[in-house]
Amino acid sequence: MRLVSLLPALAAAAVVVAGQGLTPTDNPRYVTVAIARPSGNGIRGAVRFTRLADGSGLQLDVQAEGLEGGVQYPYHIHVNPVPASGDCMATGGHLDPDRAKALAGGAYRCDPAQTWTCEAGDLAGIYGNLTADGSGSSKFKTSYRSTVLSFDGRVSVLGHSIVIHAPNNTRLACANIVGYKKADHKM
Ligand SMILES: *[C@@H]1O[C@H](CO)[C@@H](O)[C@H](O)[C@H]1NC(C)=O
Ligand SMILES: *[C@@H]1O[C@H](CO)[C@@H](O)[C@H](O)[C@H]1NC(C)=O
Ligand SMILES: [Cu+2]
């Protein structure tokens, strides 16, 4: 029994030493920034979440490169973390604590003007897809604020992952969302 209770603590310590990151079991109160760096199939991205000082939610800064011109790449917060194997299929479905998808009864359509119709993790649905800036660039960059997402409670982004999809829904790139204490943590 003692060994079992020690295991989570050991796992948490290992993660903190490796990346100076905080695990989901650390107190989210200390998290000011969280970052995911999905990569795969020639795509490299970063999604940074920063706690808004007024407590209304999170600022998101999103970057991606290696995008094919004219292609719309959806991306989302998926419920499960990426396992050590890196298999994006293991991340399960989208973060959706209010069950927007189930309530839509198979006719899910996220209307950004009515965010209650959207899964909380449907970042592409609410804020738009990743798509290359044009004129030969393979890069994309955007920033926005979310009053839906948080580092605390049911809509916490911590412990989940980011997945970037091809238009045919194939999972191209994924990474875990890792929390940090330092507010100026780089993307
Ligand atoms: C986002 O990308 C998907 C897949 O490519 C596409 O079906 C959808 O229409 C795009 N959404 C917008 C707003 O362009
Ligand atoms: C889906 O899109 C990816 C990337 O464009 C492509 O490599 C893959 O073959 C496609 N899969 C199917 C089943 O069409
Ligand atoms: Cu997804």
Automatic annotation (TrEMBL):
Signal peptide per UniProt: 1-19
GO annotation, biological process: superoxide metabolic process
Coiled-coil annotated spans: none
InterPro entries: Cu-only_SOD, SOD-like_Cu/Zn_dom_sf, SOD_Cu_Zn_dom
Keywords tagged on the record: Signal
Molecular function terms, GO-annotated: metal ion binding
One Pfam entry name: Sod_Cu
Superoxide dismutase copper/zinc binding domain: residues covered: 44-169
Superkingdom, taxonomy of origin: Eukaryota
Protein name: Superoxide dismutase copper/zinc binding domain-containing protein
Record organism: Coemansia javaensis
